[in-house]
Write a structure and sequence with these properties.
Elements lengths: L5 E8 L17 E3 L7 H12 L12 H5 L3 E9 L10 E7 L4 E4 L9 E5 L1 E2 L17 E2 L15 E3 H9 L4 E3 L1 H4 E2 L3 E10 L6 E13 L1 E3 L1 H4 L6 E11 L8 E4 L6 E7 L10 H8 L1 E6 L14 E4 L2 E9 L4 E3 L2 E6 L5 E4 L3 E3 L5 E5 L6 H6 L10 H5 L5 E5 L10
Parallel strand pairs: 2-13
Antiparallel strand pairs: 1-15, 1-17, 3-4, 3-15, 4-9, 5-6, 6-10, 7-8, 9-11, 12-13, 14-15, 16-17, 18-25, 18-26, 19-20, 20-25, 21-24, 22-23
C-alpha cells in the first residue's frame, strides 16, 4: 500500500486502560482483573481492525473479517503529547522506546546514588580460548570486565528518543541520571467495585471485585516529594494501513471493561534515522537490531541464524533476550458448530520488547537494502504476525571491540 493509505492513530485513555493478563476473571467474590504493564500489539491491532470493519450503523460487518486481518499494524509505541494541544489536535512531542536489554544500569558504590553506571553488553570471546555451550553457536554477550556493582532498581522502563538514539549510535560506558534516560513505567490505577442489585439499588452481598488499569499520565515523583505537581500526557501511537470509512476518531472503547479512549487520526509518522547512523552501519557491516514491540520467532527467542530481510541477509552472532512473554487470547473470528463465535488461541512465547540481536553482513550483501527493510518495520517470522504488529524494530551500530570476557 502507498503512504497515503496509512494513518497514525494516537490513543489517549480517558479512563485507566485494562489489558488483562491470562488469569481468570469471572463473577466470583474477590475476583481481580490484573492488567499487563503494556498492551500487546495484537490488542491494539484488534481494536483498529474492528473500527476498519464498522458499518454505517456502528455494528461490525463480519463479512469484512478476512479483509481487516490483512491490514498491517506497526506499534504500539509510547509517546508524549504536547501539553498545550487541544484534545482534538494532539501531536507528538517525544517518542519513548522500550529500554534496550544491552544497556546494563548499575548502582554505584559509595557515590551519589542519584546517578547510574551504564555498561554496554556486546558479544565477546572468552579469555584463554574457553568455549561455551551457548545454543546455536552464538557468542556469549557481556561487559568487558566482571562488574561488582548491583543492578539499580531505578532502571527506566522507557527511554526518551534523544537518549535512545544516542545509544543506537554509540553504546558507550558512561554515567547518567535516570530522569535523563526516561521514565520508570506506566502507573497502575487500582479500583474496587461492587455489584448492585437492580431492584433495591444496594450492594450485593459478597460481590466485590477489583480491577487494575494503566494510567497514561506520567507524574514526576521526585518533584512530588517537594510539593511540586508535574505531569505529562502520554498516549499510544500506532500506524495502520487501510481506511476506517465509518470511524474518524473520538471516544471509543478498548481493552477490558470497555474503558473509553480518545482516538485521533494523523498522517503516518515514525522516528527518523539518527544522523550518520545508517552510513556508519553500512561502512562497518555489523549492526544491532532492537525490538520495540514483542516478536514471535519460529525458534522462540531469536530470528533465523541467516536473517533475510528484503533482498539481503545478515548472520546472527549474539543475542540479549530478557524473560519470554507469554501470550494467548480469544479468536473471535472462528465460528463454532453451534453458530457461536470464539475459541482460545494457542499459547505462544514471545521475545520481549527491548531484546537485542547482533548481526554481521558478508561481502556482497546490500546492507542499505537490508536496513531499509528492517528500520521501523515488523521483523517476526510469520507474515500474519508481522501484520499484527509483532517485532517492530530499530537498528543500531555495533562498534568493533576486541576485548575478551574475563570470568
Amino acid at each position: 500500500m502507498s503512504d497515503h493509505e496509512e494513518r497514525m492513530w494516537l490513543i489517549e485513555p480517558r479512563d485507566p486502560l485494562i489489558v488483562r493478563d491470562g488469569r481468570p476473571f469471572g463473577p466470583n467474590p474477590g475476583a481481580r482483573a490484573t492488567t499487563l504493564p503494556f498492551p500487546f500489539p495484537s490488542t491494539v491491532a484488534g481494536a483498529l481492525r474492528h473500527k476498519a470493519g464498522l458499518k454505517a450503523d456502528g455494528t461490525f460487518d463480519r463479512a469484512q473479517i478476512d479483509a481487516v486481518l490483512k491490514l498491517e499494524v506497526r506499534g504500539p509505541l509510547l509517546v508524549q503529547l504536547h501539553d498545550a494541544d487541544h484534545e482534538q489536535t494532539s501531536s507528538i512531542e517525544d517518542w519513548l522506546m522500550p529500554a534496550p536489554a544491552d544497556a546494563l544500569l548499575l548502582k554505584p558504590e559509595g557515590a551519589d546514588q542519584s546517578f547510574l553506571l551504564r555498561r554496554g553488553l556486546v558479544p565477546r570471546p572468552l579469555a584463554g580460548g574457553a568455549i561455551t555451550v551457548m545454543p546455536d553457536g552464538l557468542q556469549p554477550v557481556g561487559p568487558a570486565t566482571n562488574e561488582r556493582n548491583k543492578v539499580s532498581p531505578k532502571t527506566p522502563r522507557f527511554w526518551y528518543w534523544k537518549a535512545f538514539s544516542r545509544w543506537l549510535k554509540a553504546p558507550q560506558d558512561d554515567i547518567c541520571k535516570p530522569g535523563e534516560l526516561g521514565i520508570a513505567g506506566l502507573e497502575t490505577d487500582m479500583r474496587m467495585h461492587v455489584s448492585i442489585q437492580a431492584d433495591t439499588q444496594t450492594a450485593r452481598e459478597g460481590a466485590l471485585f477489583q480491577t487494575s488499569g494503566l494510567e497514561l499520565t506520567w507524574r514526576d515523583q521526585d518533584q512530588a516529594k517537594q510539593g511540586v505537581f508535574t505531569t505529562r500526557r502520554l498516549a499510544l501511537a500506532v500506524v495502520m494501513q487501510g481506511p476506517t470509512p465509518n470511524f474518524s476518531g473520538g471516544l471509543a472503547p478498548m481493552g477490558g471493561e470497555r474503558r473509553l479512549m480518545r482516538w485521533s487520526a494523523h498522517a503516518p509518522s515514525r522516528p527518523p534515522w539518527p544522523k550518520g547512523l545508517r552510513e556508519q552501519i553500512i561502512r562497518e557491516r555489523r549492526a544491532r537490531v532492537l525490538l520495540l514491540t514483542p516478536a514471535c520467532f519460529a525458534a522462540g527467542y531469536r530470528p533465523p541464524l541467516t536473517w533475510v530481510r528484503g533482498e539481503g541477509s545478515a548472520t546472527l552472532v549474539g543475542a540479549v533476550v530478557p524473560k519470554a512473554q507469554v501470550i494467548s487470547g480469544w479468536d473471535l473470528a472462528h465460528r463454532n458448530q453451534n453458530g457461536s463465535y470464539g475459541r482460545p488461541k494457542p499459547t505462544r512465547h514471545l521475545a520481549p520488547a527491548g531484546s537485542v540481536y547482533y548481526v554481521t553482513f558478508s561481502e556482497g550483501v546490500d546492507v542499505e537494502a537490508w536496513l531499509e527493510a528492517t528500520w521501523m518495520e515488523n521483523v517476526s517470522d510469520a507474515e500474519q504476525d508481522q501484520r499484527d504488529g509483532f517485532g517492530l524494530a530499530a537498528v543500531g551500530a555495533w562498534p568493533a571491540e576486541e576485548k575478551e570476557i574475563h570470568p
